[in-house]
Design a protein that fits this description.
Blueprint: H1 8-11, H2 14-26, H3 30-43, H4 48-61, H5 64-77, H6 84-93
Helix pairs in contact: 2-3, 2-4, 3-4, 4-5, 4-6, 5-6
Length: about 90
Amino acid sequence: MLSKKPSRLITDRPTFTITRGCICFFLDRPEEAIELINQSIQMDPKNPFALRNKGIYYVIKGDKISALQYLTDLATDYPEMELVKEYLQKAQDL
């Protein structure tokens, strides 16, 4: 029988936390999303997906400086990463 609640082993992983944060974005719950993204960054400070999502959060919030801080380096280091260029452009347009 499967447990209704994910095990601690799964929920302590940065990828799981990032995924939950992305779902919160899609559900229009950005404050919950950033909380989960920050948890993921605490677990793995160099995770490019978490850093990308934090940059996207700042674009959504209209914080150009913070968005550029996260997305500019990612665009250089991970040029093929999904959504980075798109949101970097949106950040530059803020």
